[in-house]
Specification:
Layout lengths: L1 E4 L4 H16 L6 E4 L4 H11 L4 E2 L5 H9 L7 E5 L5 E3 L2 H7 L2 H9 L1
Parallel strand pairs: 1-2, 2-3
Antiparallel strand pairs: 1-4, 4-5
Length: 111
């Protein structure tokens, strides 16, 4: 799961705790955070304050910018679900996390 988010974004601050709870309930899923925070310090503070124990791409790195372009991210929060080979399952993982049980969401993604 690629999670595009930032601390300054109110909908992100609302969704991030839900995603953290979701992550703690499922197995076999990894989250990679791609920040749109204004600085690396803001990104680090957001991660310490609200995030689960997941991975992150360095702030404002070429990789972060490439992922935003690859998946056409125009607004945040965005949760892109991909298979191990990079194939997109859905760009609307956010609605799956908020609208389904964690087990059902993961089952649907792996179907």
């Amino acid at each position: 799961l690629f999670y595009f988010s930032a601390h300054w974004c109110p909908p992100c601050r609302q969704f991030t705790p839900m995603l953290k709870d979701f992550y703690e309930e499922v197995e076999g899923v990894e989250i990679v955070f791609i920040s749109s925070d204004r600085s690396a310090e803001d990104m680090t503070a957001y991660m310490k304050e609200s995030h689960g124990d997941w991975l992150a791409i360095p702030h404002n790195s070429a990789v972060a910018n490439d992922l935003k372009q690859k998946y056409g991210i125009s607004g945040i929060p965005a949760l892109v679900v991909v298979k191990l080979d990079g194939t997109v399952v859905t760009k609307d993982g956010r609605s799956h996390v908020t609208g389904k049980t964690p087990a059902q969401a993961v089952k649907d993604w792996k179907a």
